[in-house]
Design goal:
single chain; about 220 residues; mainly beta; five-stranded antiparallel β-sheet
């Protein structure tokens, strides 16, 4: 384990209800993620602060949340009829807790540092914002200078963001696609690394450590 030449800004968020759902084409049930992908945070910081040069990743803290279901039907404004109901899974505070909590790590740069002087502040992220979901209190907690570690990625980030996050090697990728917003109303899907990928990089990105000699596996 060695110290990385990479600094992150650590923020905390608190919310009463948040839905960061998997995008499933044609599906009527959308499960909620337990992590906050870089693409979600990029869109949020752009919408609320006009910041486009922010790289961030997040994770909800265990034991601060429980899952619930919110069912709603979208309305076709042209026909004036309701579409097939959609069930959206969301996170709410666990029994005995006052808020869902998450840790957010921003790659330190001048743009990210501008957020430090704003805290505490509020942002919104995820789905169902018009119904009151995703309102988050954002609080700065300090700088993080993590060690390098070999293990399983615990979040989701775009493949082309690996270098910026200080990932030295992607040893065994688990690929997926993340929605990357290009405007307020549109975007594209880009390939990303998902949970379970074996990487060597900042320990803040690592869940379970990979203890085997990857050079001699497979």
């Amino acid at each position: 384990m060695s110290l990385l030449n990479k600094t992150f800004l650590h923020f905390e968020i608190e919310t009463q209800a948040i839905a960061i759902g998997e995008r499933i084409k044609g599906g009527t049930f959308r499960p909620c993620l337990e992590t906050i992908p870089t693409s979600t945070l990029r869109g949020s910081f752009k919408d609320y602060f006009g910041l486009t040069d922010v790289l961030a990743i997040g994770y909800f803290r265990e034991n601060t949340y429980q899952r619930d279901i919110f069912t709603y039907a979208q309305v076709d404004t042209f026909l004036g009829t309701a579409k097939l109901p959609i069930s959206m899974e969301y996170l709410k505070p666990a029994d005995g807790t006052r808020a869902v909590e998450a840790d957010i790590y921003l790659v330190k740069n001048k743009t990210a540092e501008s957020l430090v002087i704003m805290y505490p502040t509020e942002i919104s992220m995820g789905a169902l914002k018009s119904k009151g979901f995703g309102r988050c209190k954002l609080t700065y907690r300090g700088e993080a200078n993590p060690n390098s570690k070999l293990g399983y990625l615990k979040g989701r980030l775009l493949e082309d963001e690996c270098k910026a996050f200080g990932i030295k090697r992607v040893i065994m990728p688990c690929y997926g696609y993340l929605f990357y917003p290009t405007s307020e109303i549109s975007g594209v899907y880009k390939r990303g690394l998902f949970q379970g990928s074996i990487i060597e990089g900042p320990e803040i990105l690592i869940g379970k450590e990979y203890k085997y000699d990857y050079k001699n596996t497979g």
